[in-house]
Amino acid sequence: MHKIKLNFNVNGKDYEILTDAGSRMIDVIRNDLHLTGTKEGCSVGECGACTVVMNGEAVSSCLVLAPQMDGATILTIEGMQGLDLGKNLQASFIEEDAIQCGFCTPGFVLSAYALLQKNPGASREEIRDAVAGNICRCTGYIPIVNAIENAAEKLNSK
Length: 158
Ligand code: FES
Ligand code: FES
What we know:
This protein is α+β, with helices and mostly antiparallel strands. It folds into two domains: about 5-75, Ubiquitin-like (UB roll); about 80-155, Orthogonal Bundle (DNA polymerase, domain 1), CATH 1.10.150.120. Helices cover about 35% and strands about 15% of the residues.
C-alpha cells in the first residue's frame, strides 16, 4: 500500500512516521504508536470508545483519516497522567465509581477533558451534551456525569 510521511505531536511528544495512506487515526495510534488505551468499538463514529482530543476538540479517531493528523496536536488517555486536568478526571472517575468494565472510560475522559478545558464551569446539562456521543453499557451514565461534575468542582475550587 502507498505510504505517507506524517508529522504530529501526541501527548507532548513529536513523531515523524511512515504509514499506510489509507489508515485511520485509530490505526496509527494503536498500531504505529502502540498506544492501546484508545479503544475501538463500533468503528463507525457511534460509540465514542475511540475518542481522542485533536487540536483541542474531542474527535472519534475511527473517523479521522491518517493524512488529517499531519501537523496536529493530539491527546490520548496515556497523556492524561501528565496533565493536572487529566489527573483530576481520572481521580474523579475512581471516586465516583464511574468505571466498571472500563472499555468506554478513555473515551469519556477525553470528551470530558475537551469540555472542561474550554468550559471549566460547565453545567450538568453541558456535561451530558459533551458525552452524548459516548456509550457506556455498564454504569447507567449517572456516576460518569457525577465524576465529570466532581472534576469541574475541583477545578473551580483551586
Ligand atoms: S469506535 Fe469510533 S466511535 Fe465507535
Ligand atoms: S464501564 Fe463498561 S462500557 Fe462503560
